[in-house]
Amino acid sequence: MEDGDRLHVVTADHISDQRRRLGKTLVWGSAALMALIFVLQTLDGIGTLTIGFENWRPSLYAYLFWSTCLCVSQVLIRGEHGKRTLFVLPAALFVISMVVFPLLFGLVIAFSDWNLSSPDGRQFNGIDNLRQMAGDPFYWNAMRNMVWYTAAIVVEYAIAFGLALLLNGQIRARKFFRVAFLLPLMLSPVAVSWMIGKSMLEIRFGPISRFMRYIASEPSADLPAPLFWIGSYISDIGQWLGWASPSFFGSAGIARAMIMMMDAWTFIPFMMIMILAGLQAIPRELFEAAEVDGASKWRQFWEVTFPLMLPVSITAILIRIIFKLKLADIIINITSGGPGGATDSVTSFIFREYRDRSNVGYGTLLAIVYLVVIVIAMTILMKLADRWMKPRY
Amino acid sequence: MSAQIFKDSDTDRKFRPVWYLSRGLIYGVLILWAIVCLFPIFWTATTAFKTAPDVMQGNIIPWIDFTPNWLGWRSLGLSPDTIGNESTVREEFLKRFWNSTVVSVTASLFAVVLGSCAAYGLSRFSYKFGFMRNSDISFFFLSQLILPPVVLALPFLVLYKSLDLLDTRIGLIFLYTLTVLPIVIWIMRDQFSSIPTELEEAALVDGLSIWGAFSTIVMPIALPGMVAAFILSLVLTWNEYFFAALLTSSAAKTLPVMVASQTGSQGISWWSMAALSFAAIVPLIIIGIILERYIIKGMAAGAVK
User: Which range of residues forms the domain containing residue B71?
Assistant: First the structure.
């Protein structure tokens, strides 16, 4: 803005035939070059020709060259309109080449028997992988775990909503609390899995297990009688909960709950901030009106705040579900799926399937089935959300 | 003194136990949750300065329970007495740190540039690529968010192998750009649609080309949003573990992979693990404290229509 008097000339959209031809030549020429290199590499790969390419980089460079030519030619051929296209075209080309192509390639891999460590290479094996998947209890177990993990979002949402309400109220040191509540989101899941999963939850020396043992231990006899009585009562509860010898990753249910809690710890701030933004956007007059009408705080929440927050809540929950479905890092690093696959998420299961067995074909099939399930589930959820978001009146 | 006209009514001046109770409860919950959030960080920071007996006795508060010791940092080669010496561990650490920095900053920049342009185009012009209209293109971009990384991981492993991109930074940068691009587009679309088009119209009438109008007029206004998108991408890419664990082995290994590979081998030498973990999270804690405004802005985008 500061140098607004610098004159710019609007490019006139008089495109000469020569320029248009140049543009077309550029696109088709580079496309032909790309096709040529690709064919040469394929022939070299099969062994018909011996040129001796070390890798497929030439094809990559040819593709990049073609993409650039395509972008340039847009401006050459279509002038001002081409410039507009150029805003979206690079991103679209990037995503298509990075997603669509690997996905198609993945489909090919998924129906083949391919163990990277075996010398045989890739072998097409039809639906053998599917048959293996149907009989793989660990995969279905991981799927079931994902349902549990996703269900935990309800609790996370409730906590996040509560915290957002508190932060939105009239409190002192609001900035401090906001920063403090945000920090867990900034930490890398790998660091979190050491900080919490491996050190704080360590059975012998971790502060949490130490605290639990302290609760469950008998109070010292020197205490005055009423304190002693309360203390022994607390220790009874502690012992009843099994806190005398805490174990976090021993039994299936507790281990799963621990993973849920750690994941919740990192991601509650995310939902909290989205909900907080929504709360701040509600006009104050509505609450004043409700107050004048004599609504109690409780009624105000259920009749004003909550309905108005419904769209934001649904957005936050949907995004949270998407992130939850990618859950893997802490599981890989803390339990590696144990005990007995009880904490496995689909991602961590496939990760181990590849790392322990280098089984690319089967792993890819599992991943693609997972993707199909997710897409179907998310579509249904989004349709439902659409219906809920519409006002009822 | 004239008579006081306005008085607080008796009910206002009375001691209000319920009010105090609720205040106490609110601050109690806030402080409790602040402890839940901060204690692990505090624990890691202090454990980095402990010795074996401190760990086993469960000492918590420095200078009162135990005297801080540089043991953990010495094993990383980062304590005051070893900082001048040669240290292979420190070199390894700095290399990983540098890898993480390069990869996350480049990928975030790349994503912000690509994503801002795409979001601007989508919020201003109507396109028609084959059967795809604007809303379809937007959905195409945003739907990448649903794609779990594991679906792409193995095909990419094989592709990168044949492209000789395994264990290179550029390979990781491409993938990371892809993973954060939908988020950037989500945030930036929101930003651009809140900027009135009259601004560019005026600029175009005054003779700027559309690129000129975008770079000199719209970009400066949308800069806070771009910073927010950049910071958010930075956080996500810095912490990314899954792809890095699969696709890198030595040259391009990032910090999270190094932290993860150390956790198993160190046993009970918590001090060095804590030092390493703490060094890995410190940059983001600093970013979180200083740039909290932008992070919140980024995440709130799209929440409020």
Answer: 10-76
Give the pLDDT of residue A320: 92
Please state, rounded to an integer, the average pLDDT across all residues of chain A: 84
Residues B125, B208, single domain; the answer is yes
Cβ of A183 within 8 Å of Cβ of B163? The answer is: no
Whether B193 and B225 have beta carbons less than 8 Å apart is answered as no
Residue A18 has pLDDT above 70, yes or no: yes
Q: Given a cut of 90, is residue A161 above it in pLDDT? A: yes
Q: Enumerate the domain spans of chain A.
A: 17-110, 137-194+255-389, 202-247
Structural domain total, chain B: 2
In the prediction, which pLDDT does A109 show? 85
Q: Between B38, B117, B256, which is nearest A91 by CB?
A: B117
Interface pTM, i.e. ipTM: 0.86
Contact across the interface for B175 and A98, Cβ inside 8 Å: yes
Query: Residues B49, B174: one domain?
Result: no
Q: pLDDT of B224-256, one tens digit each? A: 889 989 998 999 999 999 999 888 888 888 888
Residues of A in contact with B235 (CB under 8 A): 185-186
Are the Cβ atoms of A99 and B147 closer than 8 angstroms? yes
B172 has a pLDDT exceeding 80 = yes
Contacts of residue A153, Cβ cutoff 8 Å, sequence gap at least 6: A317, A320, A321, A324
Element (H, E) at A112: strand A112-113
Q: DSSP letters along B181-223, please?
A: HHHHHHHHHHHHHTS-THHHHHHHHTT--HHHHIIIIIHHHHH
pLDDT at A164: 93
Strands (DSSP E) contained in A262-321 are: none
Q: What is the pTM of this model?
A: 0.87
Mutual angle of helices B219-239 and B270-290, in 10-degree steps: 170
Q: For residues B238 and B280, what is the distance between their CA atoms, to the nearest angstrom?
A: 9
Residue A347: closest C-alpha in chain B: B150
- Residue B252 within a domain: yes
Query: Closest chain A residue to B208 measured between Cα atoms?
Result: A8
From A210's Cα to the closest Cα of chain B, the distance in A is 8
Q: How confident is the model over B119-147, as pLDDT tens digits?
A: 988 888 877 777 778 888 888 888 888 88
Taking residues B293-304, report their average pLDDT.
76
Cross-strand bridge partners of residue A112: A124
- Which of these three, B76, B105, B134, is where a domain ends? B76
Establish if B2 belongs to a structural domain: no
Domain A137-194+255-389 has CATH 3.30.2280.10: no
Cβ count within 10 A of residue B20: 10
Domain membership of residue B31 (yes or no) is yes
Examine residue B206 and state whether it is found in any structural domain, yes or no.
Answer: yes
Q: How far is A86 from chain B (nearest CA, A)?
A: 8
Residue of B nearest to A210 (CA): B58
Using DSSP's 3-state secondary structure scheme, residue A124 falls into strand
Token digits of residue B276: 């390493």
CA distance B124 to A281: 26
Q: Which residues of A touch B216 (CB under 8 A)?
A: 1, 3-4
CB B281 within 8 A of CB A255: no
pLDDT in tens, B42-93: 998 888 888 877 777 777 788 887 778 888 788 777 777 777 777 788 888 8
